[in-house]
Amino acid sequence: MAVRKLKPITPGQRFRVVNGFDALTADKPEKSLLAPLKKSGGRNSQGKMTMRYRGGGHKRRYRVIDFKRDKHGMEAEIKSIQYDPNRTAFIALLEYKDGEKRYVIAQNGLQVGQKVVSGEKTAPEIGNAMQLSEIPLGTIISCIELRPGQGASIARSAGTFAQLMAKDGKFVTIKLPSGETRMVLATCMATIGAVSNSDHQLIVSGKAGRSRWLGRRPRTRPVAMNPVDHPMGGGEGRASGGHPRSRKGLPAKGYRTRSLTKDSNRYIVERRKK
To answer: Where are the domains of the chain?
Structure first.
């Protein structure tokens, strides 16, 4: 995977850095795995704006992703690596021996024609999904379940991965992408390897219009607002805004909002770094 820097033949291309997409092998999605995707534009069922700076953007269709990998013991062949407009990672189209096709999150290094499998007694190779109890210590993993059978919920975005640190009884300890070290039930599933499209962090939009294509509207700085609109608004001249805080007055940039009595705190071995 690589990125391309465009020649500045227009102002919008002067700083533009785009994905090379050299890892992709197909440009058309599998029709049987497409679903409609309705946009809310940040409005609720009453039509009131509950989320600012959302709306517009290119129409999308949802790719139905298999986060559970519950077809155990049956080998599948990777037919293609594809782009998904709904996520930063690339997706892989699998075809099982019985003819069923499914999309999964693609890991770095997956190749067309490669065979992957999930379930017990599976080799810890890239793209295979297995229980955390069966994965060797130190292995790089992604698409991790928090509860058995729930489906992958951790380390799913482009370039992310976690590492299996220790095993102790019915729990294993993993180091998450945020830096947090946490215990997870050993019967949860995870996929071997880091998520694809690790160059996503190097991409530069180059112009405001590209944010509009993605459904993001212009955002007003709180410092530029009036006191009635935001705690950081108002002041004589160009005031700096004082302490950074949200519209509701909660401090931002480092202020911890996690509840001290949250039940899952007991599973966290080490908190993420500030």
So the answer is: 3-200, 227-274
